[in-house]
Specification:
Blueprint lengths: L1 E2 L2 E3 L12 H5 L8 H14 L6 E5 L5 H9 L4 E6 L2 H4 L8 E5 L5 H4 L5 E7 L10 H17 L1 E16 L5 H11 L4 H6 L14 H10 L2 E8 L7 H7 L1 E13 L11 E4 L8 H9 L3
Parallel strand pairs: 2-5, 3-4, 3-6, 4-5, 6-7, 8-10
Antiparallel strand pairs: 1-2, 7-9, 8-9
Bound molecules: S-adenosylmethionine.
């Protein structure tokens, strides 16, 4: 069904808890900074030198990323899928853009028979949570694998995610954040501590966990960049066993053979700058998640 240019949900979705409208409104911002855009544009231009490609923006929210991509690549055409109605309503219409109101948990079924040159998961995967940590990880992995199966022969996947590294135990912050944010009993307290996803849940991972997911999803990392670490208070550091927090950006492609595995691509990182730079913005948006 289509209303005001937005195609409404047609396939049943996994039982993923949904953010409330007021939680969603916090995401009506622009996440991709000018520094990130510079890199993103360069990666996409290398991948599609003629500038003509189809893309799927999964969890594209208010559409700012999609709109900017369409503006930067006038021959590209895009589909945005998101289940956050208030954010979808903020989308501008565009002749090369389709907006779909639906959960990202059924990608393969929803887009059966279609393919995309590029699939973007910009801060979406950590929102795919189920009622246990293991089921959550499986859903994230299944979603990555579903996207892989929707790629054209020259297809790429772009992922932006927050990377949370443990002080001693790599996966511990991920598990603690998942348990705290998904607990209904603790939600008033967790909300007061600044997590706007309290009661619904989020599941971030460390760099090595994402590497493992992409490897299991038969994807090779062609490009990878980590942005500057953002400041973490001593209290948060201890409570979450948090060694560092920063944004990671990946460009992935289906793995053709064991030789094109992880590490075959380029890895880089942005140096730490003052809190007023991208780190300040990242901190502002990530710590509210
Ligand atoms: C942190 S925001 C990122 C928005 C956008 N990708 C960007 O970078 O500006 C997360 C987005 O994921 C969407 N989302 C959360 N769970 C989803 C689901 N199960 N299916 C589709 N979209 C979902 C939210 O509605 C929101 O738009």
């Amino acid at each position: 069904m289509e209303t005001a240019g937005i195609v409404e949900e047609t396939t049943p979705s996994a039982n993923v808890p949904k953010l409330t409208d007021s939680q969603l409104r916090d995401f009506d911002i622009e996440y991709v900074t000018p520094e990130m855009w510079e890199r993103t544009e360069s990666w996409f231009s290398q991948a599609f030198p003629e500038g003509e490609f189809s893309f799927l923006d999964v969890g594209g929210g208010n559409g700012r990323f999609t709109d900017s991509l369409l503006e930067r690549f006038p021959k590209a055409r895009g589909v945005l899928i998101d289940n956050g109605a208030p954010l979808l309503l903020a989308n501008k219409t565009h002749p090369r853009k389709t907006v779909i109101c639906e959960s990202a948990t059924n990608l393969e079924r929803r887009f059966e028979g279609q393919e995309f040159d590029l699939i973007c998961f910009n801060w979406l995967l950590h929102h795919l949570v189920l009622r246990s940590y293991d089921a959550t990880c499986r859903l994230q992995l299944q979603t990555i694998a579903a996207a892989r199966n929707l790629l054209s022969s020259r297809g790429k996947i772009c992922v932006f995610e927050d990377l949370y590294e443990g002080i001693f135990l790599d996966t511990l912050p991920s598990r603690i954040i998942y348990q705290l944010t998904s607990s209904r009993i603790l939600s008033p307290l967790i909300k007061r501590m600044g997590a706007n996803t309290a009661g619904c849940g989020v599941c971030f991972h460390s760099l090595s966990q994402w590497d493992e997911f992409f490897r299991e999803g038969k994807l090779a990392i062609e490009q990878f960049h980590t942005y500057e670490k953002w400041p973490v208070s001593q209290l948060r550091r201890i409570a979450l066993h948090l060694g560092s927090a920063r944004i990671g950006q990946y460009l992935l492609a289906p793995r053709q053979s064991p030789e094109t595995r992880l590490g075959a691509g380029t890895r880089s990182s942005s140096r730490a700058r003052g809190a007023g730079g991208a780190a300040g913005r990242a901190h502002a948006c990530q710590m509210t998640e």
